[in-house]
Design brief:
Layout lengths: L6 E6 L3 H11 L3 E6 L2 H11 L3 E5 L7 H11 L5 E5 L4 H8 L5 E4 L4 H10 L2
Parallel strand pairs: 1-2, 1-3, 3-4, 4-5
Length: 121
């Protein structure tokens, strides 16, 4: 019997230190791809075909909510874990109108993120 394949996770995150933390923490657990902007994220989404997307709401080239709406039009069933450093309720309310798997406010525990990625279907 073949071992189960690793989940493919795309991280769209502009903070280099956080991308490095994801890479170190999740190596061996997931097959990963990284993007540091919305534009790069969309291109990577098309070539990588992730099982789960981890999306930062604050990106240098686009608003994360607008990006999520774009992604939803082409991939409505893709599970998304939204992350942000901002505790404001406005982004949360906007995101809650869109189907997603989780919403985490930074800083968060990487074990919590892993649990949400693993639970996303």
């Amino acid at each position: 019997m073949a071992p189960p394949s690793k989940r493919r996770v795309l991280f769209i995150e502009d903070e280099p230190a956080l991308r490095k933390s994801y890479e170190r923490f999740f190596t061996g657990r997931y097959e990963m791809a990284f993007a540091d902007s919305g534009g790069t994220g969309l291109a990577t989404l098309e070539s990588f075909h992730p099982d789960v997307l981890v999306l930062d709401l604050r990106l240098p080239d686009t608003d994360g909510i607008a990006l999520l709406q774009t992604i939803r039009r082409s991939q409505p069933a893709l599970p998304v874990v939204v992350t942000t450093a901002y505790v404001s309720m406005e982004p949360l309310i906007s995101v809650l109108d869109l189907e997603h798997s989780a919403y985490l406010v930074k800083p968060f525990d990487l074990n919590d993120l892993a649990a949400r990625i693993d639970a996303a279907r």
